[in-house]
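call fold(seq) -> C-alpha cells
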Amino acid sequence: MLVAFSVTPLGVGENVGELVAEAVRVVRASGLPNRTDAMFTTVEGEWDEVMAVVKAATDAVAARAPRVSVVIKADLRPGVTGALDAKVESIERHLAEDRS
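ret:
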C-alpha cells in the first residue's frame, strides 16, 4: 500500500519546519520506501508497518507540540510493490510520448 500523510504541529507558531522534520526523520529511519514533497510524505509497505510509521511520526511531533493535525490518504493494492516509483514513471512516460 501507499500512504500519503502530513503531520502539522499546531500551537507552536508559523515556523513548523523543524517539527515536521522530526516526522520525516522517523519515516526515513523506518527503512520503508518513501518520498517527501512540499505537502505530503508518502510511504510504501504493508498496512501494519506503514501505519506504525505514521503513528511514530505523529508521536514524534506530538512530543513537541500541544496539538497535531494529521491528514492521511491511502492506496491499497494487494500484491503490488514498487508503486511509489512506478506511478511516477508511468506519468513521465506518458509526458515523454506527448513530446514525441
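The chain is about 45% helix and 25% strand.
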